[in-house]
Amino acid sequence: MNGLNKGIRKVEVSVKWDPSPAGQPPADLDIVAATYPAADPSGAPAYVVHFDSRSPDGTITLNRDSKTGQGFGWDEVMTVELNRLDSRYGRVVIGVAIQQGTGPKTFGDVQKPALRIREGYTVLAEDDFGGVPGSTAAAVAEFVRDDTGEWTFHPGLRGYDEDPATFARAMGRPAQS
């Protein structure tokens, strides 16, 4: 029966938030994706995709980037085409980081943050970052390729107190117990 199961193929990760109150510096949330080699899925990422980049092969693309949360709908949107990702990659970790250029900000400081991960019209996960209000960044999902080559989704919100650059290197490490 495995031949009939297609696993996760293409996902859309979306983040939205309301603009900061008048007189306050804007909040800037960024979606970050790190791709790991199948030979070392917990080691250093092979590459990281964030607000000013895309994957070398075009399988991970940031379609929308907001620096303020202004506008209607989802402010940041990233597409991850797992079905096109080369077989040398076995794990993709998705995170959200808050830019700290205007001063320290945590998810608790951001107005109505929200996350949605979906495949087609199927919602795989939704969150409001309420579980990590004191964090400046959070790993939000992990996709892992199994022995048959199919991708599985592992939801989970794990907070970090890191700047975006440090977070991009740390978000794929195994959780400390």
Descriptors:
globular, mainly beta, single chain, 43% strand, 177 residues, 1 helix, five-stranded antiparallel β-sheet, 10 strands
Quick overview of this protein structure:
With 177 residues, this protein is mainly beta.
List the topology elements.
Elements: E1 10-18, E2 29-37, E3 47-49, E4 60-64, E5 76-81, E6 89-98, E7 111-119, E8 122-127, E9 137-145, E10 151-160, H1 164-170
Antiparallel strand pairs: 1-5, 1-7, 2-3, 2-6, 4-5, 6-9, 7-8, 9-10
How is this structure best described in words?
- The protein has 177 residues and is mainly β.
- The chain has one helix spanning 164-170, and strands at residues 10-18, 29-37, 47-49, 60-64, 76-81, 89-98, 111-119, 122-127, 137-145, 151-160.
- The strands form 2 sheets. It has a 5-stranded antiparallel beta sheet with strand order 4-5-1-7-8, with no helix packed on it.
- Strand 7 and strand 8 form a beta hairpin.
- The longest helix has 7 residues, at 164-170.
- The relative contact order is 0.24.
- The mean pLDDT is 91.
